[in-house]
Write a structure and sequence with these properties.
The structure is a homodimer. Chain A is of the alpha/beta class. The first copy, chain A, has 2 domains: 24-90 and 255-455, Aminopeptidase; 93-249, Glucose Oxidase, domain 1 (3-Layer(bba) Sandwich), CATH 3.50.30.30. Helices cover 39% and strands 23% of the residues of chain A. The first copy, chain A, has 14 helices and 16 strands. The longest helix of chain A is centred in the first third of the chain and has 35 residues, at 3-37. At the A-B interface, helix 1 and helix 14 of A face helix 1 and helix 14 of B.
Chain lengths: 457, 457
């Protein structure tokens, strides 16, 4: 090598090392600000305690839209605006009854049930029929119409406790809830019971949406707790003719006008390049929606607030988005991507937080090999804060429609061990969220946004 | 190199790779057993709900001794026995009153207080005096007897929220509780208030032991919550003559006979080499002592139970020890080391779990460079389970006396972000412990014991 080549190489290396040190120092400042003067926790307190559960189309969802608009304006973001979107309006109704009835109708016992989101109700007369327990759709198909017709299908496949990533365990069991009612209806079932999608054996109900297929009867469907599912399964071993009665009054009403809420800090040198970070503002109705996904919303706002507090002037445009209707329609996420395409917006990265406000452990990215490598190479900057999982594959439901525009999508990954205790339950409340974990998550997200803003994606 | 040398080298490499694969496979089996059929959570339920808080010398501590003895016998450990040890018997008394009184004695308000462990009480007449707030012992010394005499010293230095390892933040603040009363008494203070050692601003009291020095008056001492500490500090800015009244009835009674509980599985090939794993059975009296240290106790029993369940025959002798009196005396830990020396026992490693039943993130080891390297080299075997912190330095209070016999001591490290919400408080109850986190901790400990048993330390 020529001397000049060596010298310029050394120069490049030293620039790169200097840049790394500069990045590490700035990231430390971000975490310090979040841990010393963070506001994610007080925001979450307001959202959960003063507004509460925020099912799409509900008054609480509307209140949450207005709250997040005002909150981002109060923080002095450059622009805050609403994106109108029509959302489904499913309501649970007031009465939910579940009852196990023995085959001779000599005895019965009540157990708690919760209607699956989007499901039709039984109406006041309820549904009473024999129960047939199955573990998966293959078993259902093998039993066929002969055994299924006129019965209530009981889907009882547990989440696999051996999987370290509980989202994998969830994926392995969730089709029972998402497609179970439609699959069972194909064989003439008149109702469905689903084992709650939980990592734990307890007395907690987990709701969540079901999606009815076209040209298949819509049959009512409820979840029962994992302990009751085991109990019911045991009873069925002794009494093959065991029946179940349930009464629900859920119904799907007309679509309602709602909004995504967008807050922006304009980029100073590349304002046309957008980095979006978001969570979904809607939640289920059973709780305050703290982990799912109040946490992701306040962390997204907090990420931008941290930059304001530190006096950071981003190169690119940073945008926090509160998506509407992730839980039972994804209309907000679709609308956002549609408008981005319509307006010829250039998104260089999209980051979502929708795995709860737990301890940060990493990020997953869906994008080109180069984009994946770029993010994974940043991992050492996060090691001092306990984040070691930097991997290919990741994103979030709300930002997934942006993939058709080749936007790299990144999922924020907190530890997943506790998530499926709270997910879609009556106990997903403010008290279930730890302040430091929530703050560390917001700081981790802001740190990644900082790196993307500094170095592109 | 000669051909034979190359061949034997290749042989050694392939043996080593095979051994790694074998280890990885066995460790996976350990985790599977813990996650699918683990018993740590049900043990913890019994210990917390049926026995409860277990302060040294209390009936509950005696019940916990008997419970853990029976539990380890029920699991079929080869030997289970008690090590008698005299322990301090401190009692809180029934009444604890705290009251802020303004300087003109025109108004007062009650705030909750909790006596520091080992502290003397005020008796029924209570202690009333002006408050003087200090941040550290240097400030105390600068104020000197002129300003301190006859007053109540209020130690109000918070734990630093910026530190990722909250135990470092705890260490940075805990001398206020441990030595504050004695330091203040040197300058003639008649009472002490300590800001609760918490990572959070809330209304939770944190007790914990104080240690009176020799030849210094023992003055009564209480903790107040972090929110009240901030409140009191604010009031003091406006009313320099503000007074505090508190009444406590705590006292140190005569020492009581208690026990360490030891359960053993005999080694098959090297029974004289002992690997010890433990936690401490005593806890503070304010709660059920779930994280501190019910978790460590049940994880230690579970680690050995996992080996029984898997039909594993250890080479070395594995020993689970429930130490008594970590909280306010460490008599159990000292006794254990004393007996080990007396009996010429050869401990090759000691592992302690006393940082709560949270998500496992690693292990820290105190020992020779070679011992440190050996453990740190095992780290990749734990990466699939999310453990990345393998570092020099670590152990636990109860096993620390073994260091004088050059036993390498290892501390199990769970994530620390939530610990100082529960530590020494009334809310350190069963409900604060997550089943999967507890089980993963037990599995991680068993996995490390397996590696030490297989490969020595």
């Amino acid at each position: 090598m020529k001397k000049t080549t060596i010298l310029s190489l050394l120069f490049l290396i030293s620039v790169s090392l200097f840049s790394q040190e500069k990045d590490a120092a700035y990231i430390r400042k971000i975490y310090d600000e979040a841990l010393e003067r963070g506001e994610s926790y007080s925001m979450l307190h307001y959202l959960t305690k003063n507004i509460g559960g925020r099912l799409s189309g509900s008054p609480q969802a509307a209140a949450a839209v207005e709250w997040s608009r005002q909150q981002m304006m109060a923080y002095g973001f450059d622009t805050v605006y609403l994106q109108p979107v029509m959302v489904p309006h499913w309501v649970r109704g007031n009465v939910e009854v579940g009852r196990i009835v023995n085959s001779k109708k000599l005895g019965s016992m009540e157990i708690p049930v919760t209607a699956l989101g989007n499901s039709v109700g039984t109406g006041p007369e309820g549904t009473l029929a024999e129960i047939i327990e199955v573990n998966d759709f293959q078993e259902l198909a093998e039993l066929g119409e002969a055994k299924i017709k006129g019965k209530i299908v009981f889907f009882n496949r547990p989440m696999d406790p051996k999987l370290m990533d509980t989202f994998s365990a969830y994926s392995g069991a969730s089709n029972q809830r998402g497609s179970g009612p439609t699959e069972a209806a194909k064989y003439g079932a008149i109702g469905v019971i689903v084992r709650s999608l939980s990592s734990f054996k307890d007395q907690v109900l987990h709701t969540g949406s079901t999606n009815y297929g076209l040209n298949v009867p819509k049959i009512p469907a409820v979840a029962i707790t994992t302990k009751d599912a085991d109990f019911l399964s045991d009873l069925l071993k002794d009494d093959k003719g065991l029946q179940f009665y349930f009464e629900t009054h859920s119904e799907m009403l007309e679509d309602v006008l709602s909004y995504n809420v967008v807050g922006e800090i304009k980029g100073s040198t590349n304002p046309e390049e957008i980095i979006v970070v978001g969570g979904h503002l809607d939640s289920w109705d059973l709780s305050e929606g703290a982990h799912d996904d109040g946490a992701g919303c306040v962390q997204s706002i907090e990420a931008l607030r941290l930059f304001k507090a530190l006096g950071y002037r981003p190169k690119r445009t940073l945008r926090a988005v509160m998506f509407m209707n992730e839980e039972n329609g994804l209309r907000g996420g679709r609308k956002y991507a549609e408008l981005a395409a319509q307006n010829n917006e250039k998104h260089i990265a999209a980051l979502e937080s929708d795995r709860g406000g737990f301890l940060p452990i990493g990020f997953g990215i869906t994008g080109t090999k180069a984009q994946q490598k770029k993010m994974i190479d940043w991992a050492p900057l996060f090691h001092p804060f306990g984040l070691y999982q930097f991997k290919a594959g990741g994103g979030g439901a709300d930002i997934s429609p942006l993939r058709t525009q080749d936007v790299p999508t990144i999922g924020y990954i907190p530890d997943s061990q506790r998530y499926f205790k709270y997910h879609h339950t009556p106990i997903d409340n403010f008290e279930a969220v730890n302040q430091r974990e929530l703050e560390l998550g917001a700081a981790s997200m802001a740190a990644l946004i900082y790196l993307i803003d500094q170095h592109g994606m």
